[in-house]
Every structure is written in structure tokens, then in C-alpha cells.
Design brief:
Layout (H helix, E strand, L loop, with lengths): L3 H15 E2 L6 E2 L5 H27 L5 H34 L3
Length: about 100
């Protein structure tokens, strides 16, 4: 279920990905398309999941602290929830567009 907090976090992450904040202006990046933003979010999610898997393996081998493993898993879970929230919002918007009468 999508909560307003998750939707707000998804929007903030997408906005942060699509803006250039070097000078503090927050102006949109020229040439960054919606597809590029989605690719960036998905690649970040995949990278976070791979990092969490590596930490779990290190934890099973006794090479990583339990706190690091739990932190990595929590981060991966939050990243996945964010990606799912964005996906659900995109699907909802697409369904609304399909329901429009021309």
C-alpha cells in the first residue's frame, strides 16, 4: 500500500535525481528525461541490493558486524520500497491518462 510518506519520498528522490544542485539553484538538468530519471532510480536500487547481499555474505562468514548487515538490508528495503512507490504512481498516472475521454 502506498502511503503519503512513501509517495513524498519517491517524489523527492525523483526530483533530487533530476535537478542540479551545484549552485544551490535546484534548476532542472538540461536533457534529463523521465526515462533517464527512472533508469537512475532503478540502477541505484539494484546497486543497493547488491551491496546488501555482499554484506549478508560477509556477515555469514564472520567478516562483517551484525549492525552493518542490518543497516545494509534496511537500506536495500527502503530503496526497493521507493522504487515500488514510483512504479505504482506511474501506473496510476498511466491509468488516469487512459481513462481520459478525447
Amino acid at each position: 500500500m502506498i502511503t503519503p510518506i512513501l509517495a513524498a519520498k519517491a517524489y523527492a528522490a525523483a526530483q533530487a535525481q533530476a535537478t542540479e544542485d551545484i549552485g544551490g539553484t535546484g534548476s532542472p538538468v538540461a536533457g534529463a528525461s523521465f526515462g533517464d530519471v527512472l533508469k537512475g532510480v532503478m540502477s541505484d536500487t539494484i546497486q543497493t541490493s547488491k551491496t546488501a547481499e555482499a554484506k549478508v555474505v560477509q556477515g555469514m562468514q564472520g567478516k562483517a558486524d551484525l549492525l552493518d548487515v542490518v543497516s545494509a538490508l534496511s537500506s536495500a528495503q527502503a530503496s526497493l520500497q521507493l522504487a515500488l512507490s514510483v512504479r505504482d504512481q506511474v501506473i496510476a498516472a498511466y491509468n488516469q491518462i487512459l481513462a481520459l475521454q478525447i
